[in-house]
From TrEMBL:
PANTHER family membership: IRON-SULFUR ASSEMBLY PROTEIN ISCA, CHLOROPLASTIC
An individual GO BP term: iron-sulfur cluster assembly
Protein name listed in UniProt: Core domain-containing protein
Domain of life: Eukaryota
Organism per entry: Rhodosorus marinus
Annotated Gene Ontology cellular component terms: chloroplast stroma
InterPro entries: ATAP (IPR016092), ATAP_core_dom (IPR000361), FeS_cluster_insertion_CS (IPR017870), HesB-like_dom_sf (IPR035903), IscA_plant_cyanobact (IPR031108)
Length: 165
């Protein structure tokens, strides 16, 4: 009695493609009426090599209107990167923050992406909440300013500055 398992897997860049076959004896199992049988599990896996993409995935998307506003603020501020993150607080439990800082303050494990020549930095703790988020800017008279659109948020407060997951 043998089981054959087939599937498709992927190998990191630099790996080799092709078909791999693995067999392992798994010992004796009790069969019907207490008879013991050897069962061999065999897997045949087709492996495909995947090339890396040229563009890294940014942890945050920034709209054109937000980019223009950020570049204007950066120029008037004199600091060369924007740190974004999440802190405890706000009506819904977590709140966003943004602050300009010098590139010299970037930590070893910070995530860094670049938008129109400006570095956007996020610490590792905040990254799990920020990944996939969109930053927008609105010029509306009421409720204008930077807006965070977070697909991971399960609840938000009325002002949109805090959220819960």
């Amino acid at each position: 009695m043998a089981f054959v398992i087939g599937g498709v897997g992927r190998v990191a860049p630099g790996g080799r493609g092709g078909t791999r076959s693995v067999s392992r004896a798994s010992g004796r199992f009790g069969g019907k009426h207490g008879l013991k049988r050897d069962v061999i599990v065999r897997a045949s896996v087709e492996v495909e090599t995947v090339a890396p993409t040229d563009e890294p995935t940014a942890f945050i998307a920034v709209t054109d209107t937000a980019t223009k506003q950020l570049l204007m603020l950066k120029d008037s501020n004199g600091k060369d990167c924007l740190r974004v993150g999440v802190r405890q607080g706000g009506c819904s439990g977590l709140s966003y923050y943004m602050e300009f800082e010098e590139s010299a303050n970037i930590e070893k494990f910070d995530e860094v992406t670049e938008v129109s020549g400006m570095k956007i930095v996020c610490d590792m703790k905040s990254l799990m909440y920020m990944f996939g988020m969109t930053l927008d800017f609105s010029t509306d008279l009421v409720g204008g300013g930077f807006k965070f659109f977070n697909p991971k948020a399960t609840s938000t407060c009325g002002c949109g500055q805090s959220f819960g997951v």
